[in-house]
Write a structure and sequence with these properties.
Blueprint (H helix, E strand, L loop, with lengths): L1 H4 L5 H11 L2 H18 L6 H19 L8 H15 L6 H10 L2 H6 L2 H14 L4 E8 L4 E9 L4 H11 L3 E9 L4 E9 L9 H15 L5
Antiparallel strand pairs: 1-2, 2-4, 3-4
Length: 223
C-alpha cells in the first residue's frame, strides 16, 4: 500500500514505516515476503512498475536504518552541492543569475529529491519555455517499464486535468505523478507514463502530437 499509493520521497512517511518495521532484518524479510506474495497471486499481478516502487521504498528505508534512525539530512548543504553541479552542467545561454532564480523559486522538496542531472534538464526546459507556451522533455526506462514525461509551463487553472485528458486521448496511461509549482508561477509536472501495452512510449511522433495538442489547448485553440 505504501509503495504504490504514497509519495516515497516524503521523509516522514519513510520514518513512520521504519518505526513499524523496527530493524533492517525485518525490512529484508518483509521485502522478500511482499515480493513472493505478489508473485504468488497470479501471472499478471506483479509488474516491473510495482517492483520499482517496492524497491524504492526498501532502498529509502534501508538508508534510514543506515543513518541510525536519524531522519535528518544536511538539507542546505545538499541544495548548495546541487546548485554548484547544476551550474557546471547548465546549457548555453543559462547564466548564474538564472540558476539562482531557479533554485530560489522552486520548492525545497523538489530541489532535494531530484538528482542534479535532472535539475539541469529541467532548468533547460524553464529556459526554453520563455519562448513557448509549454515545453516537454521525456526519457525512457525500459527496466521499470515507463517513460518519464516532464511538462514545464506557467500555472493555469485546471492544468493537470488538461494534461491528463490529452494523454488519455493518446492512449497514454499515467502511473505516477509529482507536481511542483514555483513562486514565480513555473510549473513542473513530472509523470511516469506508459502505453496500453505497459511499456514506455518511445514513438517520437506521439510526443510531437502531445506537445502540439497541449499547446493548442493552453492557447485556447482546442478543447
Amino acid at each position: 500500500h505504501l509503495s504504490q499509493r504514497r509519495n516515497i520521497g516524503e521523509e516522514k512517511m519513510v520514518a513512520a514505516f521504519a518505526r513499524n518495521v523496527e530493524n533492517e532484518e525485518n525490512l529484508i524479510l518483509l521485502y522478500l515476503l511482499t515480493y513472493a506474495d505478489a508473485r504468488g497471486v497470479g501471472p499478471h499481478v506483479w509488474t516491473t512498475w510495482k517492483g520499482a516502487l517496492l524497491w524504492e521504498l526498501y532502498h529509502e528505508t534501508h538508508n534510514y536504518f543506515v543513518r541510525g534512525g536519524k531522519g535528518e539530512y544536511h538539507w542546505e548543504d545538499m541544495v548548495e552541492q546541487a546548485r554548484g553541479r547544476v551550474l557546471t552542467m547548465a546549457g548555453e545561454g543559462i547564466d548564474l543569475e538564472e540558476v539562482e532564480h531557479y533554485f530560489h523559486a522552486m520548492p525545497y522538496r523538489y530541489l532535494i529529491s531530484t538528482p542534479p542531472e535532472r535539475l539541469a534538464r529541467h532548468l533547460a526546459l524553464v529556459h526554453s519555455s520563455e519562448y513557448k507556451t509549454i515545453s516537454l522533455d521525456y526519457t525512457h526506462d525500459s527496466l521499470k517499464g515507463y517513460t518519464e514525461l516532464v511538462v514545464c509551463t506557467k500555472e493555469k487553472p485546471g492544468l493537470f486535468s488538461r494534461i491528463a485528458g490529452t494523454l488519455s486521448a493518446m492512449n497514454i496511461n499515467i502511473t505516477s505523478a509529482q507536481i511542483y509549482t514555483g513562486t514565480d508561477g513555473s510549473v513542473f509536472d513530472i509523470l511516469q507514463v506508459n502505453g496500453l501495452d505497459g511499456k514506455p512510449v518511445t514513438d517520437h511522433e506521439t510526443w510531437d502530437k502531445v506537445h502540439s495538442y497541449l499547446t493548442m489547448i493552453l492557447e485556447g485553440e482546442l478543447t
